[in-house]
């Protein structure tokens, strides 16, 4: 553009010179006038060149500033991430997925999400499909801690970093980092609450899920808290972390053990299934505990009329935020720790108002 402007001005200067040379008057005066005109035109060209240089410098500065701003907002991508969890219909995981998707898409990146519905074989197939599509990293929650290992091998071979969340895989050497609740403590606070409210102990039912490391940790925390306190575990069965499954199991168990003082569920859906079974059996003095801190459980606690006694609360929003932050650090080549525990705590009728019932904490 600057060259075009200079060329145009030079043409005008030459045209002015020619006109003055062909005009009326003596040759001396015409030559003098033409020289003056030429000099004026050259001054104009010089001024225009200086102005063009200043404009170019200003434009370059603006472009540099815009580039800096864009760099601050950019994730460094664009990236494509995978997401898989054990059960995409569980409200806890729905909240995690929504929070991760929102954070990723706000950075202009893409999230490919799958739901294996607690089927580890399907989860492995879905992960292989995501690898074939091409992805830069994956947020992974295993349907089975051991069973997921073939998928971890495939991800390692494809050089896809893994942010493992909520439930640990059996071999953490495969993952870049882990972010999840302190599951042992989530079960422990439930057990401590039960001991305080039933100092004489009594028969109890435990509904766990041996293939889910998170539930195993919660169950261990609960059992350690009640050990030696006079409690008798009359039944301990795998409810697979599912409301319908736990309801069916609890219905059968309560026919033989209607005198239980408490039921512990490895997550809130399990506790809600046990609640439905206890209500159907007409129990009125049985304390039911879960783990999650879900809106449904908090509503039961707030009602003041439910057999739900407490929940070892965790924060899916915090887990999601931590997982996303770790993923982008990995993308940037930064060092991350092996584990990032997220706080857990007890919510019961005494403090449920602090956390509300219309959403997750």
Model description:
The strands form two sheets. A six-stranded parallel β-sheet has the order 2-1-3-4-5-11. Strands 7-6-8-9-10-12 form a six-stranded mixed β-sheet, with helices on both faces. It is elongated, with a radius of gyration of 35 Å. The model is unreliable at 1-49 and 51-73 (pLDDT under 50). 53% of the residues lie in helices and 17% in strands. It folds into three domains: 2-73; 80-181 and 317-342, Response regulator (Rossmann fold); 183-315 and 346-355, Rossmann fold (3-Layer(aba) Sandwich), CATH 3.40.50.2300. The protein has 361 residues and is an alpha/beta fold.
Which features does this protein show?
361 residues; alpha/beta; Rossmann fold; six-stranded parallel β-sheet; six-stranded mixed β-sheet; 12 helices; 12 strands; 53% helix; 17% strand; elongated
Produce the secondary structure layout.
Layout lengths: L1 H21 L4 H47 L6 E5 L6 H16 L3 E5 L5 H14 L3 E4 L8 H9 L4 E4 L11 E5 L1 H15 L4 E7 L4 H14 L4 E8 L4 H14 L5 E4 L2 H13 L6 E6 L2 H9 L4 E6 L2 H16 L7 E4 L2 E4 L3 H4 L6
Parallel strand pairs: 1-2, 1-3, 3-4, 4-5, 5-11, 6-7, 6-8, 8-9, 9-10
Antiparallel strand pairs: 10-12
Summarize the structure.
The chain is α/β, with parallel strands linked by helices. It has helices at 2-22, 27-73, 91-106, 120-133, 149-157, 183-197, 213-226, 243-256, 268-280, 295-303, 316-331, 352-355, and strands at 80-84, 110-114, 137-140, 162-165, 177-181, 202-208, 231-238, 262-265, 287-292, 308-313, 339-342, 345-348.
